[in-house]
């Protein structure tokens, strides 16, 4: 501590702090050796001012790296892979290219790994590379409302920063934007004090792919096998992205090829303007000041979705403002009146055909490819809206068979904009919705407040123009009531189909039990009949054969 700046309060004894004394006898207190009291210091505003300074976003996230998903070495490996793969898939899809991805993880030591992710996307313009990989909060997706894996502009530079912090190595990027263009190779570090890139090396290199990007990072990490690891992540990514081809080279050297299941790209999602009902007052104020529109009418119709000139007039009228007024001069009170008028005006729901679902057919295909079960069901709901943002929910289940454990909690697989969510399961709206669904109604065991038990995998996908994650690490979806309602409806839909299957199965099992019971007694019936009716052995055998035959026929019904 900077003692020079600490001051004692003059004339005030250390004991007189206003703290309560512990009860005890006067003698014992008097007898006790005088304890050294901590010095009380009080800083002045000027003292504090000396310490007050700006914090760069990189410095903030260096200290709070858990917010970005780098809180343990195992998670750091997954987060790094996820950020690079998310970007690769986003870039390919935005450029209308069927993604061909190569993911290589090389073990340098037990606690250090080198990760390489290569895509066949459009590449990145040379001048942009330093900022994309060496500056936090720089990207193309934050200022828009469009379904994509990335949205914050932090992902890949944060992974680079984590690598630099733990191994001292820069992030290496090779990118090429077309056949006639050279490939560039950069080594980039991040100056956390200034949140700015430092280009360590920059060369033109020979690179076979005509276009695409390769990102390499060396980080402190640990690798484990299993569902919560990179292996599980790759498998689940293939499930939700049937149009992607992925080659995965694990740290063990094992090479897995995940070929594409769908030959076409998914329907491209559309970018939309914000819906007026989803905008908060502070944002509205900022938009009013930033807009290029000449007047209030122009502002409302051009910056928002679902506002026609007539609706703009109506809103202005309700707010007691003129539709022709200049917006930049709008005072706070006027903005508040406008905000209230917007809330009071009936508006069409935001356009909903802007999202790109996986679809029932591909959901089922993905599940069948990964899991050998007895029963499958899937549903893809129509879009709804939370806070003015369109979203849609899809759900699928796989049930029964020897590969799924019968008396353990079900396996829940969560996706947001086609990205598997592997951590913070209990904090997620998806998990809460699964728990709050009455699975007993469909013949599945469930204790109150817990995930159901049984041989089942439940898969839920949320697609939105803006997924409300609970933190920057994008691991759990926030519990908006509208979202939870739709997840539950999707689960009920697949649950009902499962219930029919289970009930039919139970009826069949019951009948089979009775049949095998009868089967056991057929020889005894034969003997009894022979005794009562004095029939020959041949006739007795014939009766038994007829009974067996009838039983067999009932099995085939
Ligand atoms: N492989 C790539 N090919 C082309 N462009 C890329 C690639 N990787 C990143 N980019 C560009 O760099 C930007 C920043 O990436 P970054 O991962 O930091 O943020 P983001 O993807 O926008 O959001 P998020 O923080 O949620 O991941 C992206 O918005 C994209 O424009
Ligand atoms: Mg990203």
Structure description:
This protein is α+β, with helices and mostly antiparallel strands. It is 37% helix and 18% strand. It is built from 15 helices and 14 strands. The strands form two sheets. It has an eight-stranded mixed beta sheet with strand order 5-4-3-6-2-1-7-8. Strands 9, 10, 11, 12, 13 and 14 form a six-stranded mixed beta sheet that branches. Strand 7 (245-249) and strand 8 form a beta hairpin.
Task: Give Rg in angstroms.
Answer: 33 Å
Arrangement of strands in the largest sheet: 5-4-3-6-2-1-7-8
Question: Which molecules are bound besides the chains?
Answer: adenosine-5'-triphosphate, magnesium ion
What proportion of the residues is helical, as a percent range? 25-40%
The best one-word shape is globular
Give the low-confidence spans.
1-30
Q: Say how many strands there are.
A: 14
How many alpha or pi helices? Answer: 15
Q: Biggest β-sheet, characterized?
A: 8 strands, mixed
Order of helices and strands: HHHHEEHHEEEEHEEHHHHHEEEEEHEHH
Provide the structure class. Answer: alpha+beta
Q: Hey, roughly how much beta strand do the residues contain?
A: 15-25%
